[in-house]
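Case study B.
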Amino acid sequence: MNAHPLAAGMAPGAACLAPRPPAPACESCAIRRHALFGVLDDAELAAVRGQIGSVELGPDERLVLRGQAAPAVYTVRAGVVRFERPTAQGLRRIVRLVGPGELVGAEGLLGLPYADDAIACTAVEACRIPCAAVDALHRAQPRLGDELMRRWQQALEASETWLTELGTGPALRRLLGLLARLQRYADDDGRIWMPRRDEIGSMLDMTVETASRQVSRLRRAGVLVLDGPRHARLDAKAFAEALARGGE
Amino acid sequence: MNAHPLAAGMAPGAACLAPRPPAPACESCAIRRHALFGVLDDAELAAVRGQIGSVELGPDERLVLRGQAAPAVYTVRAGVVRFERPTAQGLRRIVRLVGPGELVGAEGLLGLPYADDAIACTAVEACRIPCAAVDALHRAQPRLGDELMRRWQQALEASETWLTELGTGPALRRLLGLLARLQRYADDDGRIWMPRRDEIGSMLDMTVETASRQVSRLRRAGVLVLDGPRHARLDAKAFAEALARGGE
DNA sequence: CGAGCCGTTGAGGGGATTCAAGCTCAGTGG
DNA sequence: CCACTGAGCTTGAATCCCCTCAACGGCTCG
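Model:
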């Protein structure tokens, strides 16, 4: 089945132990309004400001580890993070992707250990917020509770959509569905993050070879233009057509 | 691909319009401690008691409808409910199952429409709780907020587990995974709810025929004993062996 | 009793996997 | 400088699992 057997060759524990520089100015943060603390006013934000740290990760470095105690949640400021968990067969399956403004590790707020490995796909910047800080704020500002629930609901929605759109149908259509999602994380220049073939395999439940074949097909059809080792570009028109044809 | 094209022949709207008898005594409810309001004491419970209605559904009747405004949430008291949503191809995919003690339609508390169709698999009894009642209680009793978040997290966990365990691997193993889940909803007598073959198809992303073949295989192997039209029984020993072999 | 739903089984074909080889490219050390 | 290596990607050939198409039997129900 799909790829990398047991996390061999991954960067060591990272995030939790790394030094934690203070976060850049929250007040002027580009994603402030979309982030968990978007509901707070300047004064409230200032009160927790000191407890928030900044984390930077390179590709394939772990942000959190499944099963570990969860002392903090993370808000992604830049980059793409994947959620992985092992299947019963010891293989790995990617179950969700999150990007800027989204929350990682919310289960920590309930006193639960992290439910998935969260691993950087691209270079990632994130804010580290201690669970205790969220709890304290929550008591003072009940609206934060609504915002948390809203995020849980979004995560659930994303997971169920993943299941229906990426977990069914022929390989080519699943790949198109994935690319449509990656398009949302495109940079200003229109370039998307292009996963490794084995990552595609883990996301779409197919082998590396099948992933490679389908990518090549889209490349030959002019839908996808590879652009550097881990980047690509979609031709909007050709992509829409391919999607309409629905994978042959 | 998998079964029933567009909900033809389903019972009409049901739940929302049906008469709402008052709920049976909450104080002595068997699932009280496992339900959403398990955190409330007798006095708090008594205060909302009057707003809670009881709903009873037969197999294939809808509890809530995807996309519709969500005035209430439901706590399942008995039976099994499936969450369905249409795929991009107009087919239906079952994305989650819930049983006694679990919550349906929590997204309504955020002012969102229902995210999935929730349909009774077996005979179902549920409590209908107006969102307004939950909101009011929530303001009075903050612990209810934690309980809600806990349920959201459980739903998310269930969805991701569904993806990794039922969305991958050969057909037989996926079926075994499903049966293991259904076992949790077994009655005191050890009988489990046995889905129709097309329902199995919608859950495990396979055709009716494949579902039938795999079921027959398990039947011949003595793992599964069909017992009435919509019921079955698992042979614990044979089942464990089959699971260990992992689908041949 | 015919109609329709549900389940089962067979035959055939196709899409994905498996096994295998070859390619490019970056990093390494002789 | 260049073989050497290994990771990642691609492609081919053979196999197999699952899908498609099809037929049939049991059952309920009008």
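Residues 196-198, 208-209, 212-213, 215-216, 229 of chain A lie near DNA strand D (CB under 10 Å from a C1'). The remaining cases will be described in the next quarterly update.
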